[in-house]
Q: What sequence folds into this?
């Protein structure tokens, strides 16, 4: 009996992890697009068209690096928008017990852990871009991977975990 339970748990977690990757890709697309729109809006005189933000193509091939405040603001706007997309898709698509997090406490916990993720994203972006001098997009990919793993673990353990619910007054029908 115990063995079957752990096999089922492992299978369920693997499926949720794979679905989480799909939702993460959709959220990342929102993040990247909105980040690029903000960067382009503040540096359109320097880029050769909108796609220049992604490719690094600049007018006269003169290197352009957005200021720290512009880059961090763009990152925060993209990240927050992606968090809302991720929350909705996590409830609907990712977790077997997605409805466990579909209340104000679940949303608050989701936002709390996401705020920590935002801090990790901002810190990682600052270190990778300003301190190390890495490419904006490579740094963003590396940081997003690290934050993805953190987010999946926190959400699985503390938000969408049916065994973690102890509030009988607000128990959700499973």
A:
């Amino acid at each position: 009996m115990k063995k079957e339970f752990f096999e089922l748990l492992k299978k369920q977690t693997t499926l949720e992890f794979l679905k989480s990757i799909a939702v993460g890709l959709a959220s990342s697309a929102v993040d990247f697009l909105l980040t690029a729109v903000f960067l382009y809006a503040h540096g359109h005189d320097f880029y050769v068209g909108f796609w220049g933000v992604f490719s690094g193509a600049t007018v006269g091939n003169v290197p352009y690096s957005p200021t720290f405040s512009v880059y961090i603001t763009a990152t925060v706007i993209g990240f927050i928008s992606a968090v809302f997309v991720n929350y909705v898709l996590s409830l609907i698509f990712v977790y077997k017990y997605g409805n466990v997090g579909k209340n104000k406490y679940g949303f608050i916990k989701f936002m709390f852990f996401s705020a920590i993720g935002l801090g990790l994203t901002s810190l990682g972006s600052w270190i990778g871009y300003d301190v190390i001098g890495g490419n904006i997009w490579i740094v963003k990919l590396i940081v997003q991977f690290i934050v993805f793993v953190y987010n999946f673990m926190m959400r699985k353990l503390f938000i969408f975990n049916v065994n973690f619910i102890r509030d009988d007054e607000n128990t959700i029908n499973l």
About this structure: The two ends are 22 Å apart (CA to CA). The helical segments are 2-43, 52-55, 68-94, 104-131, 136-158. Residues 65 and 165 are 47 Å apart (CA to CA).
